[in-house]
Design brief:
Number of domains: 3
Number of helices: 8
Number of strands: 14
CATH topology of the largest domain: Elongation Factor Tu (Ef-tu), domain 3
Structural class: alpha/beta
Largest sheet: 6 strands, antiparallel, barrel
Order of helices and strands: EEEHEEEEEHEEHEEHEHEHHH
Low-confidence stretches: none
Amino acid sequence: MAPLKLIKGTVVGRQMVTPGMVRVTLGGSDIEALKSTGIGDEYVRLFFPDPATGELVLPEVDAQGFWKYPEGKKPAHCECYTIRYFRDGEIDLDFVVHEGGRASEWAQATEPGDEIVLREPYGIYEAPADADWQLFVCDATGLPALGRLLEGLAEHVEARVIVEVPDKSHEQQFESKAQVKIVWLHGAGNGVAASQLEDAVKSMTFPADRSVYVWVASEAKTVRPIRKYLRHELKWPATRYSITGYWTDKLAEFERNWAALDPAVKKQIDDLWRSGRDAQDVRDDVEAVMEKFGL
């Protein structure tokens, strides 16, 4: 099995962006050689050592491109984070401030000189070239990607933005050449209250005379009905939207339920991902199984 393309970053700075977000700047020789994908929501995957032993068990890739870990070893905890700014020799990663999250707690405590292993960036946003009317929908976790995406829009694009944050102090300012209108939903989603994003999307009137693209990034269960709405009710092709679950609410409960799940069901889900079928059809089937078992 061939190793993943992993690199090392060195912390060179840390600062608060808002009361709810902390920014960590990484540098070092690997970061200096790092190439951006050019995609606004590009992210890196961070790998954290076992807090008890300090051991960092990294994955390898099998012949099908899936991750495998050494037998009997506890895999390194890993999480994905958007590159907010990409400069020569440095990248900025923004983390939502909260208790209990391994990455967030690391970001709040890390100091210059600390090192972390990360995977090279990968982007998801893929608006068609003719998409001149775009809707961006996210919670606080999507703000770093949202900022870069808006900054990269051309001036002829009309952008509508819906963001839910815990309170007004979490709002951020973004620059864009595009025509941007932002609606902030305070006290919604983000683990503090029920999300309002599904209702907000369903209340939108999409212009019939424009080329529309929708980008959504929020909690995993929150984005599912939005995807169903666009894919199955509006019957849009997958080229017209990007729907990504950035995090899982009540993660400890989810992990307990997953651990208790019948191995046959886990195999069913794994087989679906490995089936080689259309990715959107597979996602439909996987999400149906997950919802059936309360996941």
